[in-house]
């Protein structure tokens, strides 16, 4: 059993699709989200939760980075989403030609041997408008490279085949298999 400390059921559902061969149990343990890089947040959170439950646990932190905005919102993506939302990001990009952006995911895994970090990045661009019904956060304004649709216009399964989380979770799966983790 691998515990996933998050209150976000969308992240759990995506992880279950990606890690279909690993049993995941969501636990809703709040941990202080320190100000820092995605790596610092994931490492701190994984250690914090592991010290409470003493069982293998993962935490995940993601960020949305827009080139024309010097990487904003980056590690502050959740706060920015809650305050200005996708409409605010589109407004900030109104006069910008460069719409390049990327999602980055960092998974912190902690067990009795300490913390390991696994990351994934998917590049793309910010759409001109909000599009799509599926997904959450910035999914309705992000078009991955090689696609004409936003993440929110894709099914959960389609997104889960190419997402930043997929890339990070694939690395985690390989690590767990090498360590003969019970899957």
From TrEMBL:
Protein's job: Pyrophosphatase that catalyzes the hydrolysis of nucleoside triphosphates to their monophosphate derivatives, with a high preference for the non-canonical purine nucleotides XTP (xanthosine triphosphate), dITP (deoxyinosine triphosphate) and ITP. Seems to function as a house-cleaning enzyme that removes non-canonical purine nucleotides from the nucleotide pool, thus preventing their incorporation into DNA/RNA and avoiding chromosomal lesions.
Enzyme class per UniProt: hydrolase
InterPro entries for this protein: dITP/XTP_pyrophosphatase (IPR020922), ITPase-like_fam (IPR029001), RdgB/HAM1 (IPR002637)
The reaction(s) this protein catalyses: dITP + H2O = dIMP + diphosphate + H(+); ITP + H2O = IMP + diphosphate + H(+); XTP + H2O = XMP + diphosphate + H(+)
Entry binding sites for substrate: 6-11, 62, 136-139, 159, 164-165
Family: Belongs to the HAM1 NTPase family.
GO cellular component: cytoplasm
Catalytic site positions: 61 (proton acceptor)
GO molecular function: dITP diphosphatase activity; ITP diphosphatase activity; metal ion binding; nucleotide binding; ribonucleoside triphosphate phosphatase activity; XTP diphosphatase activity
Self-association state and partner proteins as the record states: Homodimer.
Cofactor(s) of this protein: Mg(2+)
Keywords annotated in UniProt: Hydrolase, Magnesium, Metal-binding, Nucleotide metabolism, Nucleotide-binding
EC number: 3.6.1.66
Protein name as annotated: dITP/XTP pyrophosphatase
GO biological process, one term: purine nucleoside triphosphate catabolic process
Binding locations of Mg(2+): 33, 61
Cofactor info, note text: Binds 1 Mg(2+) ion per subunit.
């Amino acid at each position: 059993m691998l515990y996933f400390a998050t209150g976000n059921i969308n992240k759990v559902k995506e992880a279950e699709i990606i890690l279909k061969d690993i049993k995941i149990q969501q636990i809703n343990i709040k941990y202080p989200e320190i100000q820092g890089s995605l790596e610092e947040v994931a490492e701190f959170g994984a250690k914090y939760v592991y010290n409470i439950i003493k069982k293998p646990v993962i935490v995940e932190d993601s960020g949305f980075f827009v080139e024309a905005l010097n990487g904003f919102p980056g590690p502050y993506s959740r706060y920015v989403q809650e305050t200005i939302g996708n409409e605010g990001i589109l407004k900030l990009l109104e006069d910008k030609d460069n719409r390049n952006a990327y999602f980055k995911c960092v998974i912190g895994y902690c067990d009795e041997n300490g913390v390991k970090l696994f990351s994934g990045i998917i590049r793309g661009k910010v759409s001109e408008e909000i599009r799509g019904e599926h997904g959450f956060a910035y999914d309705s304004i992000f078009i991955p490279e090689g696609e004409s649709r936003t993440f929110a216009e894709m099914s959960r399964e389609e997104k889960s085949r190419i997402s930043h989380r997929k890339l990070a979770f694939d690395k985690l799966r390989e690590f767990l298999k090498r360590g003969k983790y019970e899957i």
